[in-house]
Amino acid sequence: MSNPNALLHRRDVVNELLRDRADLLVIAGLGAPNWDVSAAGDHPNNFPLWGAMGGASMIGLGLALAQPKRKVLVITGDGEMLMNVGSLATIAVEAPKNLTIAVLDNERFGETGMQKTHTASGVDLAAIATASGIRTSRIIRTMAEVTELRDLAHEGRGTAFAQIKINPEALVFVMPPADGVILTTRFRQSLLGDEALFN
Amino acid sequence: MAEAAKSRAEAAPALPTWPDEIYRVLKDVGIRQVAMVPDAGHSRLIRSFEADPETRVVTLTTEEEGVAMLAGAWLGGERGVLLLQSSGVGNCINMLSLPVICHMPLLMIVTMRGDWGEFNPWQIPMGQGTRPSLEAMGVIVNKVDEPDLVASTVQGAANLAFNTWKPVAVLIGQRVLGAKNFKELARK
């Protein structure tokens, strides 16, 4: 039996969330979540952010509302989520069934020198999500729970939120294309077909 | 009696028609998502969209959420509009890099404060900074100060945004909206 107090590894978590991803649509937040999602494999249905800090979950909302039959998974970091916790209130009110938000919580601002975020002092994002009205909200500490979250995201039975406690390790960057036009166009073409190029 | 009623009707100020005209323009360009932080100047337009089963009206906690949300809408193949006040433009600045760098359309309709006849000094900095802030971020700005030109300005901005994948803002001046004066209200 492995140590139950051991923190999860961020790329194991993301690999599991994206296992057999089928036609899942993925928004990756600024910073390490972008590199983690890219390390799991570049994909036209990924929209990885190189900026727009604080925007990942709301991009997920707009996409989920526009594509109610597809499943949308936002994978972002604790610093990014803390910048716009108000978006959890907005998302709870809209309550799209097909949106899951997974926050990789290393309790650090990883891109800027590993300074502690508010979650290191106990700020509970899952409780904020719950209090906002996202009923399926949880803190995750085991891979078995990550697998449950993966299944929730793929099934799309209601808005879901998870704060996943991960090791604050600095890993090699794996980068997707940085050109926003390429990322936007290939995502829309993959989702909407060639018609997207004409509209 | 009839003459008196007619005379009263003529004396009463007519309801502005431009919010209804904007609604029609936005319907014609296929708006499906309306992201907004409520504003008195937009209240009539918001009521029209709320009564429309084809549009989703999303109330934001801060305007920058709407910039991100409408980027997601565009990725998913839907068109949206962001309704906000000039003070809300200040909340959007960094998020505007998203539609600018990704060549995504973004249509913003901004009701102005701190512009013409303003009574509240705290509205001046952002009101006067609205156009230069937007332009500094690469947003195309059209200002309108004539009620009769509001609908055509929005039409042109919507076409520009959705045909050329640019962020475009229409600023509706206080000359159109009518400047509030809370000092008068306080005396009543």
UniProtKB/TrEMBL annotation, chain A:
Record-annotated Thiamine pyrophosphate enzyme TPP-binding domain positions: 49-161
Alphabetical keyword list: Decarboxylase, Lyase
GO MF, any single term: thiamine pyrophosphate binding
One Pfam family in the UniProt entry: TPP_enzyme_C
InterPro entries reported in the protein's UniProt record: THDP-binding, TPP_dependent_decarboxylase, TPP_enzyme_TPP-bd
Lyase found in the keyword field: yes
A GO BP annotation: small molecule metabolic process
Domain of life (superkingdom): Bacteria
Chain ranges passing through the membrane: none
Protein name as catalogued: Aldehyde dehydrogenase
Source organism per UniProt: Bradyrhizobium icense
UniProtKB/TrEMBL annotation, chain B:
InterPro entries for this protein: THDP-binding, Thiamin_PyroP_enz_TPP-bd_dom, TPP_dependent_decarboxylase
Keyword Ribonucleoprotein attributed: no
Domain Thiamine pyrophosphate enzyme N-terminal TPP-binding per the UniProt entry, residue ranges: 22-112
Pfam families: TPP_enzyme_N
Molecular functions (GO terms): carboxy-lyase activity; thiamine pyrophosphate binding
Keywords carried by this UniProt record: Decarboxylase, Lyase, Pyruvate
Domain of life of the native organism: Bacteria
PANTHER family (UniProt xref): SULFOPYRUVATE DECARBOXYLASE (PTHR42818:SF1), SULFOPYRUVATE DECARBOXYLASE SUBUNIT ALPHA (PTHR42818)
Protein's name in the database: Phosphonopyruvate decarboxylase
Organism: Bradyrhizobium icense
